[in-house]
Amino acid sequence: MSSGRFSRRRFLQNSGTAAALWIPTHVNGYTQQELVSFSDEERIQREISKWELDTPSLCLDLDALEANLAHMQETVTRNGIASRPHAKTHKCPTLAKMQLQTGSIGICTAKVSEAEVMFQHGIKPIMMTTTNVTPIKIRRAMGLRKANPEFIQATDSAQNAKLLSEAASSMGLTADIVIDVDPGGHRTGVSAGKTALALAQLVDQLPALRLRGLLCYDGGSQHVKGFAARRQQTLERMIAATETFDLFKENGLSTEIFSGGGTGSYNIDHETRGLTDLQVGSYVFMDTQYMDIGGLNNDEQYSDFEPALTVLTTVLNDQYAGRCTTDAGAKACTINRPWARVKGEAGMSFSSGSDEFGTLQYEENPSRTYRVGDKVELIVSHCDPVVNLYDSLYAVRGERVEAIWQISARGMSA
Length: 414
Known about the structure:
Blueprint: H1 8-15, H2 32-37, E1 39-40, E2 43-44, E3 57-61, H3 62-78, E4 82-83, H4 93-101, E5 107-109, H5 112-120, E6 126-128, H6 135-147, E7 151-155, H7 158-170, E8 175-180, H8 194-205, E9 209-216, H9 227-237, H10 239-250, E10 257-260, E11 277-278, H11 288-291, E12 309-317, E13 323-326, H12 330-333, E14 341-342, E15 348-351, E16 358-362, E17 375-379, H13 383-387, E18 392-397, E19 400-406
């Protein structure tokens, strides 16, 4: 570690107060390329404030991230269940490694391209939750399995299982398979019960395949507002999956893996009998979509995890009453609702409906107003698609940029 590395403790000591906010006297507007040139294995070797970053830029509060990681692991451990986080949220190998180092048993990916990137960066316990159906994707998945014995993939039909068996046989390997069971949303997965059982029995019998269990991710329950309503729907919609789990066991099939759950139901999912691990994702970052679902002790606000991911944007125009324009529009923030929110401020709203520009509007008694050149920090609307807009994120502790992390699986949608 560099002796010149800025520490939060040293900053607070020098400032004389924990409430101090360091703002540089001049703003350089450092670009990603410049910060990379200042870094050594991702860690920034200069004292740079996040307020000096060129914008729009994606920032990650390390204190909030570490608190979120710790809270998740403490909760799942207490509840006797494991975490298998979904890397589709962050697409960042550095973050995936942090999740594994803090107790997760593996990671999930949505696409084979994400799995390939994670493996290329040294991550091995990977479960792909989407079925590969085209010949090219099946070949790529089997190629990954040949290189990585810890790679697991999903199937949801007899036709697909036979294709996986043929591909694995042709490459001289045994592929690990989980059955994707539909929780009732009819998006992906085989119907629960006897249909899923028949598919599992087929996989168990086909050459070059090894059945590892099942997964059932109920995305439709994650954003149900109000804890009681969310708990009720989550548990009700997982009943059929648990009955399928029982059928697997009764018929001598592997139930080593029974994966599901998510950030919205992380403190509910352990009540689903047999569930082994949670496919949590957004908890590392949080966003306005989750902040509005309500928690166990507050039906209006979900505060179990801290908002760690923000977009930093610059005011471009302040000429018109009641509003200003920033440089972060849909291409920097997406158009997901609810809109991004200004962090730490009240009496204002933000929207990113324009491609290039964001609009900040003042309401009654705004906590402050902005002038051209001022920076605005936004809590993101929906973290997954926002992350996919950026090549890297800035890891920030306090006000200082500590590291730059590559979003290596950005755009890996195939």
